[in-house]
Design goal:
727 residues, mainly beta, Phosphorylase Kinase, domain 1, Transferase(Phosphotransferase), domain 1, 3 domains, seven-stranded mixed beta sheet, five-stranded antiparallel beta sheet, elongated, Tyr_kinase_cat_dom, membrane, transmembrane, 6-blade_b-propeller_TolB-like
Length: 727
C-alpha cells in the first residue's frame, strides 16, 4: 500500500495480481496494472509508479500512466547484484523511495538482504545477505532473518524483519541496529527490545507535528497496529485488539483480521491499513495533543518548560523517554577466553588491525586487560594495554551483546567523525570480543575534574586559566565541525598526566546541519543544572548553550566541587530550580570567600550570561585568554603559532588545518606537586563516558530512562502525544 501524490491511494491486490488506485476524494477505485504479484510500491519525484513482483520471474518494474509494465531489474530467481536483467531477486517485498538520492530500497525477503535500486536499474546490496540470522552492525556482519517491508525517513531505513523492527542508517554506511522487538514472539508494548511482535508485515514512517519521527507497523497474526517512536523506541498499540483477537469493527475499539499493508500521510494525521482478512482498507486518525504555539517565552507556561510534566487526561498514548538498545557486531574472529586479566593470543598483532571505513578494528589477541576502572548500566570499563606498542588504553566491554544504548551509538558516531585534537577525547578503535563491540579510547590517569577538586588546586589563576584555555580550545574544534556537545560538566572533562584537559562523553552530542546554527531537542533527558536558560525554555541548543554549560563547569571548579544551585535531589514541582533558571530568577554566584581571581570570575560570569548573545564564543574566549597572557596556539609539527584573526575566518563546515589550539604545559608530570598519584584517583575517559567505579554510588545515569532520573540531575522532555481511533 502507498499513499501517493494528492488524494490517491495505491493498493497491491495480491490475490487478483493487480495494483489498484483509490481516489479518496471521489471514492472511485480503478485498476492501474494487472499481472503483477506486487508486495511493494514506490513513487519517484515525478509521480511514476514502481513495484516489486514476487511472481515466477522475481523483478522490479515501472508502470506508466497507461498501465504498461516495464522491467527495471531482475526477471529470474537469485540474489545477484548487477544492472537490469543481470540482477536477480528471490522474493522482493516492500520498497521505499529516497528522494535525496533518487533511488529505491527493496526488502528481498528470501535473499535476507536490503537492496538498493537506481532508476536506471542498477542493483546493489546494502546490508545482509549471508544467510537467515539476526545480527546488528556494519553491512559486512549484519544479518536479517526475514525482511518483509522497508520505509524511509530521516536518512534511515526502517525494516520489518520477522518480529523485529530494524534500522539501516544510510549516513553511517548502512550500519544496522535494532529499534524494537526481540526473538520473543508476543504482543507486548514497551521500550525497544522489551516490546514484542508476532509477525510484522507493512511499515511506514512519518514525522509528527513536533518533528519527532514515528514508525507505524502492522502485526499480521496479532491483528493490530503498532506505533513506535523512532527516537525513544517506545512501542504502543494504537488500533486493533491488544489481546490479538481478530474481527471486523470500526471505532475506538477497532478490530482487524490479518492487516498486512500500511502507509501514512506525511504528518501522520491519517494512517491507512490494508486489512487483508476483511478485504478492506481502513483509515486511522491520530489526534495530536500539541503545545499552544501562541504561548510566549515571557509567559513561560509549564507546557513550554522541559521539566514540567503536564499530562492531559485525554491522552491514551504517552511517548516517553527511553533508551534504544543497539545490538552489536557478530564476532568475526575466534572467541576470546572469559578472563579479566588477558585475552588470549591467537596469532597476529595489532599490525593486523583492520579498518572498517575509518574505524580501526583491533584483534582481541592484541589487547591485555588489567583492573576494572568503572561499571555502568551498559558495560564495564577496564584499564588495558595494546600489546604491539605498549599503549595503555581504556576498554569498555558491554555487559551483553544487546547492551549498546542510543547514547553509546551517538557517542561512537561522534568519536568516528571528529578530527583528532589534543583537547578532545582520543578514539583509538574498536575490538570485537565474543560478539560484543568494545570501544577503545585513550587512558587519562588523572581522570575527571569532578574527582580532582580536593586533590589539585584548580582555583588558582594560573592553573584555572590553563583549564579554561584547554576547554575553549577543544570546544572551538568541536563547534568548527558543526557539533554541539550538550553535556559539558566537570564530570566530562578529563585531565592528562601532564595537566592538559580534554573534553569527553559525547553521549548527547548532535551534529548541526550546515545551514543551521542550532539543534532542536524533542526527547531525552538533560542535566538541567548545566543547561542554558533558553534551552530549558525552547529545547533549542546552540554553540552558545554549550558556552553556558562550560560556565557552570568553571563555576564547579571555582567552588571546589559544589553542586550547581545547591542540591541534586529535587522533585519536579512548580518550584523546581530549572524553572527559575529558565526565567533568570536563579543565577549562579561565585562565593565571596572563593580564592578565584578577578580575571577568573569575569570569564566565568561572561559564560553564564542570561542572554546567549552576551556570551563569548569559544574563539572569543581564546582571544581573551591571549590578552591575559595565556596565548592559545596550534601546532603543525613542532612549530607553534599564535592565534590571530585569520584563524577565525575559515568556513565553519571545516576545521582549521591544525585542528584547533593547544599551548603546551611548560612543566610536565606533577605540575604543582599536589597530585598524589594514588591509584584510587585513576579515572578514564571511558570511565567518565561509560561507567563508574563499582564502589561508588552511581549518580542518575543518562542512559537509564527511568523516572527516578527526572527527580535528580536530569530534566525530562515531553514529546507530542497521540490519541488514536479508527474512522
Amino acid at each position: 500500500m502507498m499513499a501517493g501524490n494528492g488524494s490517491m491511494l495505491f493498493i497491491t491486490d495480491t490475490d487478483a495480481l493487480a495494483i489498484r488506485k483509490a481516489d479518496l476524494l471521489t471514492e472511485e477505485v480503478t485498476t492501474v496494472a494487472t499481472g503483477v504479484n506486487s508486495w511493494g510500491l514506490g513513487q519517484n519525484e515525478s509521480g511514476q509508479i514502481f513495484a516489486t513482483d514476487r511472481g515466477s520471474t522475481p523483478r522490479v518494474v515501472s508502470i506508466d500512466d497507461s498501465g504498461n509494465i516495464f522491467v527495471l531489474a531482475g526477471g529470474s530467481a537469485g540474489c545477484n547484484d548487477g544492472a537490469g536483467s543481470f540482477a536477480t531477486f528471490r522474493s522482493p517485498g516492500g520498497m521505499a523511495f529516497n528522494p535525496s538520492e533518487g533511488d529505491f530500497y527493496v526488502a528481498d525477503t528470501d535473499c535476507f538482504r536490503i537492496r538498493r535500486i537506481t532508476q536506471t536499474g542498477n542493483v546493489t546490496t546494502v546490508a545482509g545477505g549471508t544467510g537467515s540470522f539476526t545480527a546488528d552492525g556494519p553491512p559486512s556482519v549484519a544479518g536479517f532473518r526475514s525482511p518483509t517491508d522497508v520505509a524511509f525517513g530521516n536518512n534511515r531505513l526502517f525494516v520489518n524483519d520477522d518480529n523485529r523492527v530494524r534500522i539501516v542508517d544510510i549516513t553511517s554506511g548502512y550500519v544496522v541496529t535494532t529499534l524494537a522487538g526481540s526473538r520473543v514472539n508476543g504482543r507486548s508494548d514497551g521500550i525497544g527490545t522489551n516490546a514484542s511482535f508476532s509477525e510484522l508485515d507493512g511499515i511506514a514512517y512519518f514525522e509528527g507535528q513536533d518533528g519527532v519521527g514515528m514508525v507505524v507497523t502492522v502485526d499480521d497474526t496479532a491483528h493490530n497496529v503498532r506505533l513506535i517512536n523512532a527516537e525513544t523506541a517506545e512501542v504502543t498499540t494504537i488500533a486493533g485488539s491488544p489481546e490479538g483477537l481478530s474481527g471486523l469493527q470500526d471505532g475506538t475499539s477497532s478490530l482487524f483480521n490479518q492487516p498486512y499493508g500500511v502507509d501514512a500521510t506525511a504528518d501522520g494525521g491519517i494512517i491507512y491499513v490494508a486489512d487483508r482478512g476483511n478485504a478492506r482498507v481502513a483509515m486511522l486518525t491520530l489526534t495530536n495533543v500539541t503545545i499552544d504555539e501562541t504561548v510566549t517565552e515571557e509567559q513561560l507556561d509549564e507546557t513550554t518548560l522541559i521539566v514540567a510534566i503536564v499530562v492531559p487526561l485525554s491522552i491514551v498514548l504517552i511517548i516517553g523517554f527511553v533508551v534504544v538498545g543497539w545490538c552489536l557486531y557478530r564476532s568475526r574472529r575466534n572467541k576470546a577466553r572469559e578472563s579479566k586479566e588477558t585475552i588470549p593470543s591467537g596469532g597476529g598483532s595489532s599490525a593486523r588491525a583492520s579498518i572498517f571505513g575509518s574505524v580501526p578494528l583491533h584483534d582481541p589477541s592484541d589487547i591485555k586487560i588489567f583492573e576494572k576502572l568503572g561499571e555502568g548500566n551498559f558495560g564495564t570499563t577496564y584499564r588495558a594495554k595494546l600489546i604491539n606498542n605498549g599503549t595503555v588504553v581504556a576498554l569498555k566491554i558491554p555487559k551483553h551483546a544487546t547492551a549498546f544504548s542510543t547514547d553509546d551509538v551517538r557517542e561512537l558516531n561522534a568519536l568516528m567523525g571528529l578530527h583528532k585534537h589534543p583537547n578532545l577525547l582520543e578514539f583509538i578503535g574498536i575490538v570485537s570480543i565474543e560478539g560484543k563491540v568494545c570501544v577503545i579510547t585513550a587512558f587519562y590517569a588523572r581522570g575527571s575534574l569532578d574527582k580532582l577538586h580536593h586533590k589539585i588546586d584548580m582555583v588558582k589563576e594560573k592553573r584555572f586559566l590553563r583549564i579554561v584555555r584547554d576547554v575553549a580550545s577543544g570546544l572551538k574544534a568541536f563547534h568548527d565541525q558543526n557539533m554541539i556537545h550538550r553535556d559539558l560538566a566537570c564530570r566530562n572533562l578529563l585531565m592528562k598526566s601532564d595537566g592538559v584537559v580534554v573534553i569527553a562523553d559525547y553521549g548527547l552530542t548532535q551534529k548541526v546541519e550546515v545551514d543551521k546554527d542550532y539543534y532542536m531537542q524533542h526527547t531525552s533527558t538533560l542535566p538541567w543544572a548545566w543547561t542554558a536558560p533558553e534551552s530549558l525554555r525552547t529545547r533549542r541548543f546552540t554553540t552558545k548553550s554549550d558556552i553556558y554549560s562550560i560556565g557552570v563547569a568553571f563555576w564547579e571548579i571555582l567552588t571546589k566541587g559544589k553542586y550547581p544551585h545547591g542540591k541534586r535531589n529535587v522533585s519536579i514541582l512548580e518550584n523546581h530550580p530549572a524553572r527559575q533558571i529558565a526565567t533568570g530568577e536563579l543565577k549562579l554566584e561565585i562565593p565571596g570567600d572563593s580564592k578565584a581571581s578577578d580575571a577568573s570570575r569575569e570569564l566565568v560570569y561572561s559564560c553564564l550570561s542570561f542572554e546567549p548573545a552576551a556570551r563569548p564564543s569559544a574563539y572569543e574566549l581564546l582571544r581573551k585568554l591571549e590578552e591575559l597572557g595565556y596565548a592559545p596556539t596550534f601546532y603543525p609539527g613542532n612549530v607553534f603559532l599564535r592565534v590571530h584573526e585569520e584563524a577565525h575566518k575559515h568556513d565553519v563546515s571545516s576545521p582549521s588545518a591544525a585542528g584547533g589550539y593547544q599551548d603546551p604545559i611548560e612543566v610536565r608530570g606533577d605540575v604543582d606537586g599536589d597530585v598524589d598519584g594514588d591509584e584510587d584517583t585513576l579515572r578514564t575517559d571511558a570511565g567518565a563516558t561509560y561507567g563508574r567505579r563499582a564502589n561508588e554510588k552511581s549518580e542518575p545515569d543518562l542512559r537509564d530512562g527511568v523516572e527516578e532520573e527526572s527527580k535528580h540531575m536530569y530534566a525530562k522532555h515531553e514529546t507530542t502525544q497521540f490519541r488514536a481511533k479508527t474512522a
